[in-house]
Amino acid sequence: MKVEIWSDIACPWCYVGKRRFEAALDEFAHRDQVEVVWRSFELDPGATSAATAGESAYVDRLARKYRMSITRSQEMLDHMTRTAAVAGLDFRFERAVAGNTFDAHQLVHLAAAHGRQDAMKERLLLAYFTEGLALGDREVLVGLAEAVGLDRDEAARALEEQRHAADVRRDEEEAGRLGISGVPFFVVDRKYGISGAQPAQHLLEVLDKAWSERAPLTMVSAGTEADVCGPEGCAT
């Protein structure tokens, strides 16, 4: 079974959604037969990158984007931090450095070619939301790629050549065709779509449903010609 997850590296709910999906997958009886593919989505394609975080920078950006007061913005971040903590995540919004995530998404595609896609996605999310690293800085990105086992020089060349730019664009175009306008968004076997960081139990229920509809019938017993009709039913 294939699960595709559209998400952005600068999306806090995407990190929470990743943890909730992992919790659901841990409880899924057929988890070893699930292929997870991370798809690219940019919440702010026109974002510019900074070198460091300014004081209250994230609070200010959130307030401007959604046209709310600084007080309301801080309340939202406090709520998000508590929600993340329940999922085992340590959000440090005061450290977050504004950045364009296009190159970071390219690294996720590069990592997929080496079987390290999930590790790359996790490392980027941790770097942004907890460590306060500047993901718009290619040197930082190359270091993160190396940290998950990718070749540093290959990662640097891939970014310089924009080798996976077309892959990022294809993911985003596919999101448009599927009607995805927000993330995280989970697509299970191209049959079920789940919008948002839903609770693990809900994600598990969808996985179970999708599996039951795709798995072949398993014969647990068979009758003989002599008992084509019996107390449990009739054969045609």
Class of secondary structure makeup: alpha+beta
Output mean pLDDT. Answer: 91
Q: What is the assigned CATH homologous superfamily? A: Glutaredoxin
- Spatial sequence of strands, sheet with the most strands: 2-1-3-4
Q: What is the rounded distance between the termini?
A: 32 Å
User: Class in CATH?
Assistant: Alpha Beta
Annotation, overall tally of beta strands: 6
Architecture (CATH level 2) name: 3-Layer(aba) Sandwich
Report strand %.
5-15%
**Which regions contain 5 or more consecutive residues with pLDDT less than 50?**
221-232
Q: Would you give the CATH topology?
A: Glutaredoxin
Based on CA atoms alone, the radius of gyration comes out at 22 Å
How would you concisely characterize the structure shown here?
This protein is of the alpha+beta class and 236 residues long.
What's the arrangement of secondary structure elements?
Blueprint: E1 2-7, H1 12-27, E2 35-40, H2 57-66, H3 70-86, H4 102-112, H5 117-131, H6 138-147, H7 152-160, H8 165-178, E3 185-188, E4 192-195, H9 200-214, E5 229-230, E6 233-234
How would you describe this protein?
It is a single chain. The protein has one domain: Glutaredoxin (3-Layer(aba) Sandwich), CATH 3.40.30.10. The chain is 50% helix and 10% strand. Strand 1, helix 1 and strand 2 form a beta-alpha-beta unit. It is globular, with a radius of gyration of 22 Å. About 5% of the residues have low confidence. The strands form two sheets. Strands 2-1-3-4 form a four-stranded mixed sheet, with helices on both faces. Helix 5 crosses helix 6. It is of the alpha+beta class. It is built from nine helices and six strands; from the N terminus they run βαβαααααααββαββ.
